[in-house]
Design a protein that fits this description.
This protein is of the alpha/beta class and 339 residues long. The protein has 9 helices and 14 strands. InterPro entries: Gfo/Idh/MocA-like_OxRdtase_N, Gfo/Idh/MocA_domain, GFO_IDH_MocA-like_dom, NAD(P)-bd_dom_sf.
């Protein structure tokens, strides 16, 4: 009996070797069986390069193939909803890159379609598939260092290099371009897991002075009833950085380079400063790969061995993302109007 789970790729993405093609080599009972692209020739070159067996004539063709069990969607943000829903209607499980959609109501549409067709959807936020987040949440709950006071996150990618592609959605505000929408999913998932996404106040700030009026630097702030504050800085023109700082009443925890396990099996380290004792310590986790963990999790969901992550969480993130983004737009318009 055939027990292998077959994955089909939509699009010739740069992320797929990290997120799918390499991880499946470490997991039994799963393979990438084919690829489709808006360009057959480009898909053929990509398939040859990555040793993918079958190239389909179109996205529709790969969805109609009953041999395909799971569809991976790393397309441009505006295309996520359309092709996720089409895949679900063809009874395919769907792994879709972040953000799952650009608008919260679209998450509801995807959720409804998945339920009607009895298949699963997972938003590909790989950072949540690692034990370090649970360990950190347990530290917060334990109050070992007193009450949590502030969480600060910095994520930046220097993506310009003096050039940009006019058709790249990251440089098109109307298609979810800019650093905040590109990077905030990681921050919002982290905050959501640690303290929830129900702040009493939120605010966004950006000059929107990047290419085509995109936000090249963005600051976001959340304030909670208990007094906890969360700050986020996203950037497209600063050196690569991915850091969380947690400030407690009696201590501080820093997590540097938390994206590193995207690129292989690497360690995550907590640098801990205990203000009461003056001691500095390091908590170190065994080397793991986010994408391998993510794929193993989704396979267990499909096989009925694990409960999936609810799309309610994705809805909350997209909803908060839009609110903060609009807050920054309204602030900028107000400032321009007073000049």
């Amino acid at each position: 009996m055939e027990n292998t789970i077959h994955i089909g790729l939509l699009g010739c993405s740069k992320i797929a070797p990290f997120s799918i093609l390499n991880p499946v080599k470490e997991i039994d009972g799963i393979d990438v069986c084919g690829i489709a692209s808006s360009s057959f020739e480009r898909a053929k070159i990509y398939a040859d390069q990555h040793k993918i067996e079958k190239v389909y004539e179109s996205y529709d063709a790969i969805l109609k193939d009953e041999h395909v069990d799971v569809v991976y969607i790393p397309l441009a943000n505006p295309q996520h909803k359309e092709w996720a829903i089409q895949a679900l209607k063809h009874k395919k499980h769907v792994l879709v890159e972040k953000p799952i959609t650009l608008f919260p109501e679209e998450v509801r549409e995807i959720e409804k379609t998945a339920s009607e067709n009895h298949v699963h959807v997972l938003e590909a936020l790989m950072v949540q598939h690692h034990p370090w987040q649970k360990e950190l949440k347990d530290i917060i709950k334990s109050q070992k260092y007193g009450n949590l006071k502030k969480i600060k996150t910095r994520i930046s990618f220097e993506i310009m290099g003096g050039k940009f592609e006019a058709d790249n959605y990251r440089f098109q505000p109307e298609n979810g371009g800019g650093c905040f929408i590109d990077e905030s999913s990681y921050w919002l998932q982290f905050i959501q897991y640690m303290v929830g996404l129900y702040p009493v106040d939120y605010k966004g700030s950006s000059k929107f002075d990047g290419v085509n009026g995109c936000d090249w630097n963005f600051d976001a702030f959340l304030t909670y009833a208990e007094g906890v504050q969360a700050e986020f800085n996203a950037s497209f023109d600063r050196a690569s950085n991915a850091t969380h700082w947690l400030e407690f009443e009696n201590g501080e925890i820093k997590i540097h380079n938390f994206f590193k396990p995207c690129y292989g099996k690497y360690k995550i380290k907590f640098n801990i400063q205990d203000h009461q004792t003056g001691e500095h310590s390091v908590m170190e986790f065994l080397p793991e790969n986010y994408y391998v963990n993510q794929m193993k999790f989704f396979i267990e969901v499909i096989q009925g061995k694990a409960e999936n992550i609810s799309l309610k969480e994705s809805f909350e993130r997209i909803d908060m993302m839009r609110k903060i983004y609009h807050s920054a737009k309204e602030t900028l318009n107000s400032e321009v109007g007073t000049k």
